[in-house]
Amino acid sequence: MTTTDSRLTSRNDTVTENRCRSCGSFVTRDFARVFGNNENDVFGCLECMTATEVKKGGARAEHVDTTKLIGGREPLR
Asked: pTM above the 0.70 mark?
């Protein structure tokens, strides 16, 4: 028996919405919800940023100064 939870799926949910806007890698809806901005847009992921950069908010803004995130490192993008 299969049930569908309308909270889990929406007709506006497409693969392009589940992609990193920086490198194009697939990200899960949960990743976008947790690390993305208020519209679940993700501008960095674990393919193009370090885990520390993502955890400190680097994935939620289109332009991020990563030197302030982890102390002097050049931006990845």
From this structure: no
